[in-house]
Amino acid sequence: MLTVLSICCFRLLVGHIKGVRLAFSMREKRKNISFKQGDLPLDKLLALKGEHLTIPADKILELCDSWCQVVQLPEGGIGIGGESEQYRLLRNGVQFHELDYDGLKATITGLSKVLLLPGLNTVVDQDHFGLWSWCAEIILSRESEVFEDNEYELRKLFETCVRASLAHCKKPAPSREEWDQQIQRDQLIPHNAKFFIQESGLALAYLVFPLLEGICKKLCFEFISMDGRVVRSFSVPTKNGGTKDYDPNGRWNQKQCSSLRDLLFLTLDQYPSPEFELLRQHISLLDSEGDPFDVIYKWRNQSLHGSTSFQTIGGTLLNIAMFLLVISFEHRYDDSRLPVLENCRRNSESDNRSPWSYYPPY
């Protein structure tokens, strides 16, 4: 019985990997552009030199929206199959290392919708592993200059969250032989490490809250220090429609800010963008009780006090954290991308992968 089940699972996986070759076509100024590399794994795409055609940001959002629409069943619940998988980004020629700044923002936004569905059901795909690993690669690179020397702890927290998000990532096995080799390698993982990897999503769900808080403080350093001390006056909306004032010269409860909700409102005010609003709208679809930042605050408090365990929300909040870091070096992204990509190519050609390597994710 187990042998038959294993063979069936293997056939399903092979069918998912090979599938029917899908070509995404679009019309742009009287030109039809077809993407032919959608079935290649990321490490093979990385080896291809030269510039490649990239799907525009609006088409990336369209693909993700189409996936979300297809998986929603009329009777409720979700159904994932051939019809929905034709909208995966990798299958449609999206190469994360070729994304421009707008394309990367759209990908983070679109894949956030695909990742966490109503009912807090999460669906992690190779698209997400590719996105997380590329974002980590360019954010943590020296070229991007995202983290300062005095932000070592925040950087390490970000690294740990990324590793947790990629813990389950495996290279697609195109043959039975490679499938068997992966099973053999899995059997060599030490007992405790194996089960910790299985719970990496839970670890991420807890670690991403202090990460998001730290990133908000980092981006809004003119208003608040990393220890929560208010250094410049600001106001945020309250639940009842009023405002809450923070003032370094005010009352004791105005001189310190430890509310992730209020920090997110401050960050939104300082870094407004349509994509940030789309991320907020998505959270509203998951939980309509209050403002999206109130929902995140509720998730944090319930997780912190052990009343509820939201194991599936880690990836979505990591996407928000990555989005905020990406927009923090908007003017350096395009200049940083090619040097970072070249480092990835050199690393992929080496027998010993660098400990600081993230992309490709396997």
TrEMBL record:
It comes from Agarivorans aestuarii. This is Uncharacterized protein.
